[in-house]
Each structure stands twice: as C-alpha cells, then as structure tokens.
Amino acid sequence: MSVMIAALPFLWQGLLVTLEVSALVVAVSLVLGVLLGSGLTYGPRIVAWPIRIYSDVVRGTPLLVLIFFIYYALPATGLKIGNLWAALVALAAFETAHVAEVARGALQSIHPGQTEAGKAIGLTFEQRMLYVVFPQALRRFLPPWVNTVVDTVKGSALVSLVGIVDLMLSIQQVIGRTFRPMPLYILGALIYFIINYALSLTARRLEARFAYVRE
Question: Fewer Cβ close by (within 10 Å): the C or N end of the chain?
Fold first, then answer.
C-alpha cells in the first residue's frame, strides 16, 4: 500500500497524458466516424466503397500493428512524424473505423418510412438527417459508441510502446526504481477501471436521457 501511495505523484503526469490522448482521439473519431457512417449509409457507391474498404482493413488490423506501421513506415517514405502524432493518428484511424460502423448501424436501424415522411413534408436531405434521423438514431448509437470510448482509453496504453510517457509507461518507470511490479500494476488496473467505470455510468445516464421511446 505504501508503494502505491508513494507512486501516485509520479503517475499523475502520465495519467494526464492518457486522458489527453484519449479525449483527443474520441473527439476526432466521433466527428469523422459519424461522417463516414453517413457516407456508408446514404452515399453513392463511389463514396461508400472506399469507406467500406478503409473500415474493413483498419478494423481487421491489430491496433499495435497500426501504431508501429505509422511510426516506422511513414518516416521511411520521407514523411517525418513524431511519436505522439504517430500514436494519435493510429488510434484515431482505428477508432474512426469502429465509430463509422456504429453510426452506420444506428442510421440503418431507422425505418425508411421516417425519411420518406420528412421528404413528403418538404424537408431537405440535411433537414431530414438533422431533425428526423439523427435524433432517433442517437439512442441506438450511444451504447455501442461508449464501448468504443472505453476501448480507446484501454488502447491508449499501447502508446507507451513508442516512447510516450503515459500512465502505463509511468508505472513501468516507477517499477524500474522500486522493483515492486505487482502493487503498481494493481494500482494501474484500478485507475483504468475507475476511468472506464465512470464513463459507463455517464453513458447510462445519457442513454436514459435520450431514450425517448422504450422498445
């Protein structure tokens, strides 16, 4: 217990890096994922097929492989990129592909009659999306999207493998000084659990808030 308490000040900066990386990736993947999911659902084939290929390839690639590929392969082509940006790009690309599928599923779950009704009263495509489809799809989108947020937080631990001092690497550095791995790994697991459990509780409240209709 004393080792855990003594390590907390050293882990604080790493925890902040983990939270910053996770928040940035979640924000970027949410925006891009919804756009790509809309393209998959409503876009013409010339738009939908490249998105489908991107989604299938990225989702089928392990996140660690994707991080290493961007970190080592891009500099080999002459494109210089730092370890932080390499990790951010890899995480954002990976999570965007998953959010796109979540968005596609939520949008396709809305009955076509809803959009036809909006069209019948003169709403434009953008208005139908904004006022008819998205509000109904939101409550179907939230639960699986929160799972991707939790996966993002857990996946952010892999950025330590390219030299970013996040929570995981901070724990390993403290272990290197104290030679007490078990208490520190337990502390790390507890911190990750608290973050993800808080996200799950927030998601439940949001889901209840936006669940206008119980099916």
Answer: C
Domains with residue ranges and CATH for the chain: 2-210 (1.10.3720.10)
Helices (H), 43-130: 45-59, 63-68, 74-76, 83-108, 112-120, 125-128
Cα–Cα distances in angstroms (integers) from residue 26 to residues 6, 45, 88, 93, 150, in the given order: 31, 28, 10, 11, 10
Which CA distances in Å does 150 have to 26, 46, 117, 153?
10, 33, 36, 5
Question: Hey, is 62 helix, strand or coil?
Answer: coil
Tallying the residues shown for the chain, one arrives at 215
**Total-model pTM:** 0.89
Measured in degrees and rounded to the nearest 5, phi and psi for residue 79 equal: -90, 110
29: its two tokens? 């993947």
How many Å apart are CA 99 and CA 97, to the nearest integer? 6
Q: How far apart are the first and last CA of the chain?
A: 47
pLDDT in the model for residue 211: 62
Average pLDDT over residues 204-209: 78
Place of tokens 């030299």: 163
Query: Whose CA is closest to 67, among 1, 208, 163?
Result: 163
Rounded to an integer, what distance in angstroms lies between the CA atom of residue 90 and that of residue 70?
Answer: 7
Minimum mean pLDDT range among 47-56, 73-82, 100-109, 138-147? 73-82
- What span, in angstroms and rounded, lies between the C-alpha atoms of 66 and 117? 43
Which amino acid makes up residue 74? L
- At 215 the pLDDT is 45
